[in-house]
Amino acid sequence: MAVYTEIPDAELVDYLKQYDIGELHSLKGIAEGVENSNYLLSTDAGMHILTLYEKRVNANDLPFFLGLMEHLSKNGLECPQPIPLKSGEQLSKLAGRPSAIISFLDGNSVRRPTPLHCKQLGEALAQMHLAGEGFEIKRPNALSVKDWRPLYNMSAAGSNSVAEGLSKLIEDELTYLESNWPQGLKTGVIHADLFPDNVFFLKDKLSGIIDFYFACNDMLTYDIAICINAWCFEADHSFNVTKAQALLNSYDTVRTIDKDEYVALPILCRGSALRFLLTRLYDWLNVPEGALVVPKNPAEYIAKLKFHQSVQSTSEYGADIS
Amino acid sequence: MAVYTEIPDAELVDYLKQYDIGELHSLKGIAEGVENSNYLLSTDAGMHILTLYEKRVNANDLPFFLGLMEHLSKNGLECPQPIPLKSGEQLSKLAGRPSAIISFLDGNSVRRPTPLHCKQLGEALAQMHLAGEGFEIKRPNALSVKDWRPLYNMSAAGSNSVAEGLSKLIEDELTYLESNWPQGLKTGVIHADLFPDNVFFLKDKLSGIIDFYFACNDMLTYDIAICINAWCFEADHSFNVTKAQALLNSYDTVRTIDKDEYVALPILCRGSALRFLLTRLYDWLNVPEGALVVPKNPAEYIAKLKFHQSVQSTSEYGADIS
Q1: Residue of B nearest to A13 (CA)
Q2: Residue B111 is nearest to which of A8, A23, A26, comparing CB atoms?
Q3: What ipTM does the predicted assembly reach?
Q4: Mutation target among A26, A116, A204, A293 for the B interface, most CBs of B within 10 A
Q5: What are the residue boundaries of the structural domains of chain A, listed by start?
Q6: What is the pLDDT of residues B193-219, one digit of tens each?
Q7: Measured between beta carbons, which residues in chain B are less than 8 angstroms from residue A202?
Q8: Most CB contacts within 10 A, which of A179, A291, B53, B61?
Q9: Contact assignment for B32 to A28 by CB distance below 8 Å
Q10: Please, are residues A192 and A65 in contact by the beta-carbon 8 Å criterion?
Q11: pLDDT at res. B295
């Protein structure tokens, strides 16, 4: 559930004068995005998203996020793009917070993706990876392999209360991944959080990708691994090979998956499963008082991690590539 | 803060087939309305509000609320109106709840109304009272004078913990109002909750009235009294006679305020202040566990009640009518 900062009327009217989008029609707080306050903003120029960046987002990262959306959009990816102020800036300030106005992207996320959705996802992900080339600002992944053990240490004491044997499972996996994490794979800008809520479809056709607030520079194939975890398992946590096959094959038609990327996929899937397991475990054990969010159960990612541990080779993900 | 019921994709697509508004573009949960789940629904036919009626709304009242919006809109009031199903019905069912699609009303509520806003409010309120004539379904006011003592009894034990002497203030007021509540004033359909969040303005011109889920049959002047309480006090709870004057004079230009209505206004203001004091007191003392809402402090309505108790005659509200 999003935060809602109250925006004083007069301040909003003045704020809009900095932009070339006409006058205010309506503003409605929307239930989208966990880290920021988001509003649907309608003006003479149509519908936009107004975002106030709340404390959990590092303001120093905003030029990366906003610049990236502009760069991707200019390079043909369907995604929201920042509306510039008259001054040419992308970032402004409203209600005491950094803020931006972003174009409105039509479409709706799907809660139960089909193989057809996964096929389109694969194409769009590869398009995003290509479109990200040449983007000059860099942002390291703050949640990669070296960050997982410190993150785990904050939850270690409570981990066995969540699932029996969880602490050993995680510690063994950390040790394994720290020694075996792939090196030298192709890197670039990755989305790093491309869950079904961040992909819009319009009449079953992918209409765009949103929410670049975890985007960073890392191995491109790690982004594929995140998508396999987020899109290719059923509600009972069983793996759906048809969906993974659709995702991988369609990705490969847009950006060829190299041999070494292909080989590394199972371990990247393990790493991605562990990364979401660790953040969910932390959130599960540290629900703030008066929280508006029910934390997601880490059990889902325990099951996914165990599945990937059982995988012997990438062919088990169903791809017709190698 | 509104409730958000998750709507399964396939169910939503099927649901829209019952209507003549084309296919789904997007659906976003919005932070509007406390009793229901509200979504901005965009389809081939444009923007709408989709409402799921949650448990706090009595389903038997829905034909009154929806029928009223249609009636008022047909009679020229700017307000949302239910989009009929192909079957002609206004009410349907989605995600296991009664539901309706309502037209989208452009505009934005103001948080700090000026006298100019109050002037437009007065006109619109009188227009609503006239437009409500001839509406055949009836709904008694469930929060009128006879309901206040039972409501108070549920909070009586805790009331002095909220403010010193509150229990005596309320008991004396109940006794006074029960003996002196006006009889025989003109009745009709009243909005009964016309706070600033329920009135939209577009470029400082009133664009419409929303949220008819407290509407009922009662004395028309009681609705004016509610608006005086909701619009004509400052943040420090001081009364702003300029705003009340603007509201009353403009109302009177559209629907004449009778002599007996004029005389009864101070006591109706006292009753209205007590009504909101009592519901806020109850909510304040009964915050449900895990609530998403910070209850409103009852102190505001203690101050307003005391102000109206001090009023000797309606002329103190500034109206140039009598």
Answers
A1: B203
A2: A8
A3: 0.74
A4: A26
A5: 9-103, 115-317
A6: 999 999 999 989 999 999 999 999 999
A7: 25
A8: B53
A9: yes
A10: no
A11: 78
Give per-residue pLDDT as tens, B13-42. 999 999 999 999 999 888 776 678 899 999
pLDDT digits (tens, 9 = 90+) for A234-291: 999 999 999 999 999 999 999 999 999 999 999 999 999 999 999 999 999 987 665 5
Task: Enumerate long-range contacts of A224-227, CB under 8 Å, 24 or more apart.
Answer: A224/A125, A224/A248, A224/A251, A224/A257, A224/A265, A224/A268, A225/A265, A225/A268, A225/A269, A225/A271, A225/A272, A226/A190, A226/A191, A226/A192, A226/A193, A226/A194, A226/A272, A226/A276, A227/A121, A227/A122, A227/A125, A227/A194
Chain A's closest residue to B294, CA to CA, is: A290
CB contact under 8 A, A40 and B28: yes
Q: Give CATH superfamily name and number for B115-317.
A: Aminoglycoside phosphotransferase (APH), C-terminal lobe (3.90.1200.10)
Give the list of residues 6+ apart from residue A248 with CB closer than 8 angstroms, or none: A122, A224, A257, A317, A318, A319, A321
Angle between helices B115-131 and B241-254 (to 10 degrees): 30
Chain A environment of B42 (Cβ under 8 Å): 106
Please report the number of interchain residue pairs, chain A to chain B, with beta-carbon separation below 8 angstroms: 71
Q: Which two tokens stand for residue B303?
A: 């101050």
Q: Are B230 and B211 in contact (CB under 8 A)?
A: no
Both structure tokens of B40:
């901005």
Which amino acid does the sequence have at B81? Q
Percent share of chain B, pLDDT over 70: 96
Residue B190, beta-bridge partner list: B216
Mean pLDDT of A159-187: 97
Here the tokens at position A9 are 């009327």
Comparing CB atoms, the residue among A26, A111, A203 nearest residue B23 is A203
Determine the Cα angle at B227 with ends B223 and B229, to 5°: 120
**Which residues from chain B sit within 8 angstroms of residue A200, using beta carbons?**
26
Taking the model in full, what pTM does it have?
0.83
Backbone angles phi, psi at B13, to 5 degrees: -60, -45
pLDDT band with cut points at 50, 70 and 90 for residue A119? very high
What is residue B9's predicted lDDT score, i.e. its pLDDT?
80
Specify the fold of A9-103: Phosphorylase Kinase; domain 1 (3.30.200)
pLDDT score of A295: 78
State which amino acid sits at residue B100. Answer: A
A110 chain-B contacts, CB cut-off 8 A: 9
Low-confidence ranges of chain B (pLDDT < 50): 1-2
